[in-house]
TrEMBL record:
Organism field: Aequorivita lipolytica
One MF term in the entry's GO annotations: carboxypeptidase activity
Protein name listed in UniProt: Carboxypeptidase regulatory-like domain-containing protein
UniProt entry tagged with the keyword Hydrolase: yes
Keywords: Carboxypeptidase, Hydrolase, Protease
Gene3D superfamilies for this protein: 2.60.40.1930
Length: 577
């Protein structure tokens, strides 16, 4: 990224401050921004209900190299009518991200589109998103055969022609896959070595080992286009997830400037962001932290009249696809035996899910933005008083409540300024309850002290977001689940799905045979490693076969640092011992 581009980004964020902007409000030439595109790798294009769709997303710049811009990527599975099966939000590391989706038993047999995009790539007139066709077969749900009147995509049994697996190679002259042998028994260890022939094969790759499906697909699905407004400029998510919106007057829908807005994502390690609307009434929050909560609280900061007269509308990240003519997925009767066998195998595998489930990697804990500053009053260490006001008189001596009713307000007592003459004493502190900004002091004044665990008071002035506070009063409840009454009354919690959590795929080890000897193993996906690199010019790994015989494909694919696509394949046979 050049210094010129960095300057443009700085100017842009300094003046626009939102995730999507009408182009006529952008103060810089949007054509100077480099393009960004997305590519996808998947474990299989044909999947049965009960199987796992696994994918990896790559983000590229205009030079076809890994992009350093977007820190979020979005992957979605759509039906032919564009209804959404899932929308995944993923955090990007080194230009890539990976996730998976369990195909549920209520998803109909049919043709689906897997699409991937970044907020920034939606600006592209072409290649705004990548798409792959996914063919899902559900053996548990009876099909609507009236759909056969549509144009047809056929899945038939492959011709069954035997081939010499030793004669089949990938299209890469840069990589070589080597197995310790070509035929294995059930539950036997496979040693795999990936070798790089050139020094410039550093890049991003995914390694997949899966049994070859005995099917052929005939027919082609047209590429769908996007229904994204060309009048909007979509901002790159440079630091993390951008959450943006607009504040409007309820009476006449007029955008309102200089309105303070806060976002809290409740959790044990909560996320708090504050912002102020610009001249067009727009605001944004940049969330770099990971979070687990599915709901968030967005509040307008002001008096009761101001809060009740205005409303917040958040921008949406997803978009609609232009609908093409639907296609019917015709499955040959020759596949009946294979489908019955696989259906039983899938059900058995899922029956042992608790034993074979993937491991979710530990989440990085986000420390509170104020870290360990201030003084903590753990109320269990003191005599508990019946009211908050008494508690702040007798226990929390570094803060106080002044006034009553609607005029009640919190202050911090600066022990170094007993006469209250300090520069920031005339401005209010930031008051939090379970990380949620208290915009109505009565909420905390009337709160039950029995539910409070501790109170932290920071008496020094603190700048957070666009505002300076005289200090911070952070109250934590025992349950950590406080939601303001105003939010509950108006049913205005905001649904905010968390990013896909990093996983480590299940890999059985049969070197200790007694532990798993009685557990069936009908895996057809023997290995999925989405993060492969060749820093040492080779890569070694191992895995075990299952109780499923057949021909398995070893596939390594991805992109070098200069954007060259690499695909290398090898094959081996598994037969009963």
């Amino acid at each position: 990224m050049t210094k010129k581009f960095l300057l443009i980004v700085f100017v842009f964020f300094g003046t626009v401050l939102k995730a999507q902007v009408p182009k006529d409000q952008v103060s810089v030439d949007v054509n100077v921004f480099p393009k960004e595109t997305v590519a996808l790798s998947i474990n299989s294009e044909v999947l049965l209900a009960g199987e796992l769709l696994q994918y990896k997303a790559y983000i590229f710049n205009a030079s076809n190299k890994i992009s350093a811009l977007s820190k979020m990527v979005y992957v979605s599975l759509r039906k032919q009518n564009d209804s959404v099966v899932f929308n995944h939000k993923l955090r990007v590391e080194n230009g890539t991200a990976n996730g998976d989706f369990f195909i549920p038993s209520n998803l109909n047999t049919g043709i689906y589109k897997l699409i991937g995009y970044t907020n920034f790539s939606k600006n592209n007139a072409q290649n705004g998103f990548v798409q792959k066709d996914i063919y899902i077969i559900n053996t548990f749900v009876k099909r609507d055969l009236d759909n056969r009147k549509k144009d047809t995509i056929a899945i038939t049994a492959s011709n069954g022609k035997d081939f010499n697996i030793s004669e089949i190679h990938g299209n890469s002259e840069m990589l070589k896959t080597t197995l310790n042998k070509q035929t294995y028994g059930f539950r036997e260890k496979v040693n795999l070595k990936l070798e790089s022939h050139f020094k410039n094969t550093d890049g991003n790759y995914v390694l997949s080992v899966r049994k070859i499906n005995p099917v052929e697909i005939s027919g082609k699905i047209p590429i769908v286009t996007k229904a994204i407004s060309s009048e909007i400029f979509y901002v790159p998510e440079l630091r993390g997830e951008l959450i943006s919106g607009i504040v409007l007057s309820i009476s006449d829908n007029v955008p309102l400037a200089n309105i303070e807005v806060s976002l809290t994502i409740p959790d044990e390690d909560f996320v708090l962001k504050t912002s102020k609307t610009n001249s067009e009434g727009r605001f944004f929050f940049s969330v770099s932290e990971a979070y687990n909560a599915e709901n968030s609280v967005v509040q307008i900061y002001g008096d009761a009249a101001e809060r009740s007269a205005n409303k917040v509308i958040l921008d949406k990240k997803d978009f609609s696809l232009n609908k093409n003519k639907p296609y019917f997925l015709n499955i040959s009767s020759d596949l009946k035996d294979w489908l019955q066998e696989r259906s039983v195998q899938v059900q058995v595998e899922n029956a042992y899910y608790d034993i074979k489930k993937d491991s979710i990697l530990p989440k990085w804990i986000n420390p509170a933005f104020y870290s360990n500053l201030g003084t903590v009053f753990n109320l269990d260490d003191y005599t508990r008083f019946p009211s908050i006001k008494e508690t702040f008189v007798e226990v929390v001596t570094l803060a106080a409540i002044r006034g009553t009713g609607d005029n009640a307000k919190f202050i911090v007592n600066n022990e170094y300024d007993p006469n209250g003459t300090a520069k920031f004493n005339d401005i209010p502190p930031l008051v939090l309850l379970d990380g949620i900004q208290i915009v109505d002091s009565k909420e905390l004044v009337n709160f039950s002290t029995k539910e409070i665990q501790k109170v932290r008071v920071i008496i020094e002035p603190y700048r957070y977001g666009p505002k300076i506070y005289s200090g911070i009063i952070a109250v934590e409840t025992k349950k950590g689940d406080f939601i303001p009454n105003e939010i509950i009354k108006n049913n205005s919690e905001v649904s905010l799905s968390s990013a896909v959590k990093p996983k480590e795929s299940y890999k059985p080890a049969y070197d200790k045979k007694s532990e798993l000897s009685k557990i069936p193993d009908y895996r057809v996906q023997l290995l999925w490693q989405p993060k492969i690199n060749f820093s040492d010019l080779d890569y070694n790994t191992s895995f075990y076969t299952s109780d499923v015989p057949g021909i398995f494909e070893v596939k390594i694919e991805g992109f070098t640092e200069d954007g060259t696509y690499i695909s290398e394949k090898n094959y081996f046979t598994v037969a009963k011992n």
